Amino acid sequence: MSESPLAVPFPERAGAALQDAFLQQALAIATTKFIELRKESFEGFPQGEALRDRARAIKEATLQRLDFYLGQLADSIERLGGRVHWATTGAEAREIVLRLCRDKGVRMAVKSKSMATEEIDLNEALEHAGVTPVETDLGEYIIQLAHERPSHIIAPAIHKTKGQVAELFSKELHGDFAADPEVLTAVARKALREKFLQADMGITGANFAVAETGTVALVTNEGNGRMVTSLPRLHVAVMGIEKVIPSMTDLMVFLAILARSATGQKLSSYTTLVRGPRQKGELEGPDEFHLILMDNGRARQIAGTLREALYCLRCGACLNVCPVYRQIGGHAYGYTYPGPIGILLTAMLKGTESVKDLAHASSLCGACKDVCPVRIDIPRMLIELREHLDRERIAPWPERMIFSMFKLILLSPALFHVSAFLGRALQIPFVTNGRVRRLPLFFAKWTRTRDLPPIAAKTFRERWKELD
Amino acid sequence: MKASIMITCLGDMFFPEVGVAMVKLLRALGVEVDFPDGQTCCGMPLFNSGYHADAAEVAARTVKLFEASEHVVVPSGSCAWMVKTEYPGLLKHDPALMASAIRLAAKTRELSQFLVEVLGVERVGSSFKGRVTYHDSCHLLRGLGESAAPRKLLRAVDGVELVELPGADECCGFGGSFSVRLPEVSSVILDKKLANAERTGADCLVACDAGCLMQMGGGLTRRGSRVKALHLAQVLAGEDTA
Amino acid sequence: MAARAEFLDRIKREVAKTPGLFPATPAPRPANPAEAAEIVRRQIAERWPQALERFREEFERVAGVFHRVGSLAEVPNVVRGIAKEKGVSEIVCWDRAPLGLDLRPSLGAEGLTVTVAEAGQESDEARVRHRAEAARAGLGVTGCDFALAETGTLILLSGSGRPRSTSLLPDTHVAVFDRTRLLESLEQVGIMLEALHADPARSMSGAMITFITGPSRTADIELTLTRGVHGPKEVHAIFVERP
Prior knowledge:
The complex is a heterotrimer. Chain A is an alpha/beta fold. Chain A has helices spanning 10-19, 21-43, 48-64, 66-79, 90-104, 115-119, 122-128, 138-145, 162-172, 181-198, 224-228, 248-263, 317-321, 323-328, 339-350, 367-371, 378-391, 397-411, 413-427, 444-447, 460-467, and strands spanning 83-87, 108-111, 132-135, 201-204, 208-210, 215-220, 234-240, 244-245, 270-274, 288-294, 431-432, 435-436. In chain A, strands 1-10-7-4-2-3 form a 6-stranded parallel sheet, sandwiched between helices. A 4-stranded mixed sheet of chain A has the order 8-5-6-9, sandwiched between helices. A two-stranded antiparallel ribbon of chain A has the order 11-12. In chain A, helix 18 packs across helix 19. The longest helix of chain A has 23 residues, at 21-43. The mean pLDDT of chain B is 95. Chain B starts with a strand and ends in a 6-residue tail after the last helix. Chain B has 13 helices and 8 strands. Chain B folds into 2 domains: 2-117, no CATH class; 123-236, Rossmann fold, CATH 3.40.50. Chain B is globular, with a radius of gyration of 17 Å. Chains in contact: A-B, A-C. Strand 9 of chain A pairs antiparallel with strand 9 (208-212) of chain C, so a sheet runs across the interface.
């Protein structure tokens, strides 16, 4: 495992990302493409706006009776012969998976893409326990071989060139492969086909779980979601509690907008609806199905400031439009979930203190809220996180002092006037040709790359006297 | 028709010429303009950084200052947004102040919205020769849902050739304190915006927000660009603005 | 069961702390799913030519290959053609009932090995054997429970005589359907699924429902689209005019 990114402070991580020429190019191409695809998709879809409103309402309605729906989901799954496990913490969820592996003699598990399992560092725990986890989503497979973390919620290996992937595959799979995506895809197909057929356990997340029918829904493009839920003898799904929805009718609402938001597709190549283990009479499918319902900090937000973040469908649309994410990519954020929603999810999972820098990694432009399929007001919650940081005195005291002084000035026109007067005097050595080009100390943060207009010789208030 | 000018802190200190242009413009359109004394700031910098109790105090002051106004016109989308959407919530602990804030929210408009919605004007009758490109400030575009009014107004000025800015709806990177908390990221975002602006061949980059103008103007002069950053009011008031 | 009660109690307490962000209800559902499904069927019975046209458009848009034949008797020809084109010698297919026909008589004679997943097979032995057969086969032929026009999607229910691997393991997947399978919108799919799940033991013999929209694909490497990552590289749909 590479050194924790958190050892390096966030502004430095961001700075390093800005220096990475390939990353900059990859981000520009990928995010621009995703933005275009999403835009086109919704432009040709007039029902889209009403469906987004409906989707948001379903999420809210579900949270209002979350205990009921989770109970109903569990009953439905047990009726189908599946088992339900309750994990309050990430550690508990990990332990449940490990126990199942021990009890069932699992040596190799194939995984379909699951952010929930990344969140709890499941792969590391499995490896320590002597179980080999194999990521099968191509992007996840790539970063697993590279011992890296995903850099985007839906396109985890966006930061890698095809040359890097070819090198990686050649080294890890003992071959000599061309830097051609077709060739590399075929290599992965062959290598992973073996794993699917031999694995003891398939591990997935869940995009949605329908309470009434006990259906776990997986939205994928590659087919690995189908493989891991049909070939191994065990299927384990790890799911955040907020993924439950009431009915099949509700599911269709989300399916109508999820792929469009993520990749601009009307539907992804595969939507897999799993109702428990193999049924009597079926030739294929797992002997056992286990659903792990995981809290890991979510329940606390039901009545908390981050409640709305529980609506998240993990589509990645907010990442693609975020001016900050587009420049620094996912790794710089340092946690499982990057981008705008990632800041909120990190606060949810690890506490407000963990985002004391990330909460400010936003210009509050609102582009994220615009594209979120369930209209999560991310900027508002970022401001509220900042408010927590202030209230809990987590923000550094020099900053709090400056803002207190700032407030005093704003409450007094006399002080405001005096500041203008003083500023005008103090800036004299720094003004050249009508611009301020260099300022000392803290203000150099601005002038390193930008000029400033000088404080005007007469403020508007002073000029009003002439105009009146 | 009477209108009060909310000049904004940045407007007062750094861009008084924008305020002057606004006054000229509004008077030419028959509006009686006043300027309630004692203005400082709408409090948004405090609010965005999470200092909400402090922001509420500033909001309370501002609300009282404009109590008597018939209309309030703001040369800044972000400040107009702050007053219209955040003030009532900030003052909810005091019913009288909150009621006052709601009244203020209803009568406050960013300049282009005031011209088009309240005055019903698109052609202000001035002239300004040049190729112009327009940047959608985030709070005006997404906070107040306005992208048409500034463009209508610009197109109707004699001599203006309006060209669409690629990525017009993308943030300029200002974001208030963001610009100094993460200056490198802010600058790279700005570079992208300015490259787009220069590619249009425009003489002027126009916006309706002092924050954006500080950021974009600061970047343009630093790179010695021939593109000038101007406020909408300056273009609408014609070439001979002071 | 203490774990469940404790867990849900805690959630209940959190839920009770707040009325929520705004009044909201889940999506309205058909009061009588069976009736609603019948209404959909009647609507489609009248509109099927337009639905088919739309299906073809959308199916081809996601790189599906569309075929149209007059009757079931012509299906083996099409399958043979595809098999020849792909150089396939082994085929797996669904049982006669869900597929609509038995391909063995017509194709078995031509050096093509056709394996039918017969209903009622459940033993471990049969499971192991079929997995190997499906893994070897170059072509899988299935029926199709619903064909969604809005998105060009084939919807398949798994179950007895209709294994999951037939449309998953072989490089090429062929689905056979007729006008009675067409649906126009995801909303209608919702109604049909509500109807199926109203009595699941009776209407579904398997645990999986798969929506297939084109071949397996990915753009994970430099955003370059490639097909056939884990699932089929190519998907064919054969529409049979006379059901």
